[in-house]
Amino acid sequence: MPAPFRPKRYKGQAIAGICLIRLTHIKPKGWPDIIGISSENAAHRIAVEWDEDGITKEGVYIPRRDTSSRWNALAGGRIFPGKHHLAKFRVAEENGRYQVGVTSDDNMHISIDASICGQFPVTSIFDTLENASVFFEKGSMGYSPGRSQTLDGLCLQAYRWEVKPLQLQQVASSFFDNTAVFPEGTVHFDNALLMTGIEHEWRSLKTIA
Question: What is d(CA 45, CA 28) in angstroms, rounded to the nearest whole number?
Fold first, then answer.
């Protein structure tokens, strides 16, 4: 993990995850929805803290971003923050079940099979859905590698924040399964959450050199 970040721990454990995001009607603020673009996206994220101007801040470090949009892959790190890998997304949604497969241009792959459920897992380190929701809501500031050895930043401003628990039948990520980076036994699945229909804005943050 690059400076100035350090892991943000919960009950002594570092928290990382995969954020699968369907973006629709993305456009400059105030422009009509009809000109907006849509895409499927994936971000591997690690909860972090860092010190800035004497203040401890928190957010996420995103070592990898993937997108179905050729525009996002071309413009990422140039016109807007964070470079993106171009990837193929296979998404199926039916009766509360979500199946997602991702294969990137460098053969990174993700596979998810999950269903909506009414109960947060009792095995989770967070104990309750509310605890998990609060933890992740604080990760609105994200930094990822740019194209010039910099860290590009984005801030997510959600107009509302509402999560639901998911039950996973299957989850895999070649990024987290890479034992050269994450030694065997150091990564454990904890929980999955779903957010839908969340209106929001993205705002650029100051680049970290």
Answer: 25
Cα separation of 50 and 41, whole Å? 26
CA-nearest of 96, 71, 101 to 86 is 71
164-173 vs 109-116, strand pairing mode: antiparallel
The pTM score is 0.88
Handedness of CA 118, 119, 124, 126 (dihedral sign): positive
Query: Who contacts 159 (Cβ-Cβ below 8 Å, separation ≥6)?
Result: 198, 199, 200
Residue 24 near residue 37 (C-beta atoms within 8 A):
no
Indicate the residue type of 85.
H
The 3-class secondary structure across the chain, one letter per residue, is CCCCCEECEECCEECEEEEEEEEEEECCCCCCHHHCEEEEEEEEEEEEEEEECCEEEEEEEEEEEEECCHHHHHHECCCECCCCEEEEEEEEEECCEEEEEEEECCCCEEEEEEEECCCCCCCCCCCCHHHHHHHHHCCCEEEEECCCCCEEEEEEEECCCCCEEEEEEEEEECCCCCCCCCCCCCCCCCCEEECCCCCEEEEEEEEEC
Which of the four pLDDT bands, split at 50, 70 and 90, describes residue 173?
very high
User: pLDDT per residue over 92-120, tens digit each?
Assistant: 999 999 999 999 999 999 999 999 998 99
